Amino acid sequence: MVRRKENVRVREVTHAQNGKGQVFFHDWLLPEEAAHHGRVFSKVVIPAGSSIGYHQHIGEFEAYYVLEGKGLLRDGEDVTELNPGDMNLCPDGSFHGIENAGDTDLVLIALIMNQLDG
Amino acid sequence: MVRRKENVRVREVTHAQNGKGQVFFHDWLLPEEAAHHGRVFSKVVIPAGSSIGYHQHIGEFEAYYVLEGKGLLRDGEDVTELNPGDMNLCPDGSFHGIENAGDTDLVLIALIMNQLDG
Is the pTM of this model over 0.90? Predict the structure, then answer.
């Protein structure tokens, strides 16, 4: 099955996890297509000035993989810059958040999967 | 946890699934970090002239999401061009394969996950 770009669902989320501005989720793989695995399999576009607020994952984990732009990640007690090719893994029970720290879109792949071995 | 680009494992596979040339798998999320979900969570770089041969998935499914370049996808009986933003879902039991149909790298995200609801 092929889904063309124009048919990929895009969700515009305002103040994502109490973050700033708008964030766009391009849900290229839908949760119902990945039954029992998780709820987010998306490309996430965080425009300059926007962020995803600091939040916890419970019963699930999230992986970010940066494609474009510059991010400022809060990962537990650490704050660090993320650049293309870098990844962040937020395990079950942990917190993270990310903001665009540059002048261009911050683009990343985000996967939120259930903690099957918990 | 943060893994920097230089620490992301890169596998160079020659004749991937009996395809042409070399294909590079950037395994940004390792299978052991996504326990019980699947075996591939990667960025795949298919240089011009290279391909992943036509192959079947059994007990698992695979999703491709194109980031860059132009691909020629064989999806069961169909052959179609894939461009950035397009996705292909190969369900449990089905076949697919993809070749670079352009002059620049074909770059995609590939997820191979277990068929949990089979």
Answer: yes
